[in-house]
Amino acid sequence: MRCSHLRLDPRGYPIIAVIPQEPGEEDYGALSEQRKLVLAAYDLCAVCAMPFRDELRWQVTFDDQLQHMGETPTFNEAPEHEVCALYAAQVCPFVSSPHARLGDAQRKGQRRAETLVLAGFDSTAAVYGHDSELQVGKSILMFDMAGLRRTHRLTGADDARQVYEAALLDEVPIQLDDAEQRIVDLLCAPTPEEGEDPGAVMAGATWFIGAAFCPRIRQVQAMNKFAEAKDDLYFQLAANFLFEPDKMAEWEDASDPSTAAAVSWFRTRESLPTVLQQWRVAGARRVRDSRGRRPRLSDAAIVSQRDEAAIRRRQEAESALRKGRRKKR
User: Fold this and answer.
1) How many Å apart are CA 160 and CA 172, to the nearest integer?
2) What is the pLDDT of residues 200-213, one digit of tens each?
3) Euclidean distance between CA atoms 290 and 275, whole angstroms
């Protein structure tokens, strides 16, 4: 199961990647904006914290909403793997029950729509700060999704369970390289000695490698620690890395594990996730050196195009592998 590496709460439920996780105070009823930033930068699932690779990215919505969202619908949650979304659809009270009621200030007490829709998209098109429609005076990160491919329409936990069991049969383990493993381990590990959510620490390191240039990131209140740092440290360091990426090597042995892991991950990528590369391109348009010159992003940081033929070959190989496993059963 994708969530097998996650810590468990006292009830035995996996502590999913996107919720606030101050030591001993995991909050399943909230989303961490700092963790959403980390998930977006590294292209990780909001439930299991593992990379998406070429899998679809799934979002939760309702039947009456999806049809009015347009070609690039916007969501306030980070996307999930299909199997992770189906797991969450069984255990989350709001998602699993057609009798669940909305809890935000504007809609408190209203019943949710009867039919829940899990929508699978090709990609995350953009991530940016935006005023929350549900929390007055607050700004949050929003996710634009592109390329709707599949949907699951569910009325309750039983529907989700049936589809989930089928998805488990098709699940393919995700292999991580060393740099990816460090990122996942740090995001999912408790930090009682530091007394804060490891996701918050990782968000700061993510600013260094490009999240500082996320559109309207400074208006997201959860990012004030980084946006208001002395001498604008996080932004300035991110800008310096744009101009002199080789200097990032000096930070691979940083005393802060999150910074060291972020830099190591960045320096070992053949291509960057689309969202992170978008942020860096936006940063390159904004910053100038003392002579008024813009940074030039290296070819190594350019996102490669999806190789559809290679993806088909991989999927065919995985399908053959799954058939072999089923015969053994």
Assistant:
1) 19
2) 999 999 999 999 99
3) 28
CA distance 310 to 64: 36
pTM for the model stands at 0.85
Q: For residue 51, what is the DSSP state?
A: B
Q: How far apart, in whole angstroms, are the C-alpha atoms of residue 144 and residue 291?
A: 36
Return d(Cα 149, Cα 57) in angstroms, integer: 10
- CA separation for the pair 282, 301 (Å, rounded): 13
The C-alpha atoms of residue 58 and residue 217 are separated, in whole angstroms, by: 23
- Predicted confidence (pLDDT) at residue 325 exceeds the cutoff of 70: no
Element (H, E) at 227: helix 224-227
State the virtual CA torsion across 298, 300, 305, 310 in degrees, nearest 10: 170
Specify whether the CB–CB gap between 163 and 86 falls below 8 A: yes
Q: Facing residues of 124 across strands? A: 145
Alpha-carbon span 6 to 15, nearest angstrom: 6
* Residue at token pair 């800008």: 239
Bridge partners, residue 123, by sequence = 146
Domain ranges within the chain, ordered by starting residue: 21-170, 178-301
What is the four-CA torsion angle of 62, 78, 295, 258, rounded to 10 degrees? 180
Q: CA-CA distance, 172 to 301, in Å (whole number)?
A: 28
Provide the CB-side half-sphere exposure for 268 (13 A, CA).
16
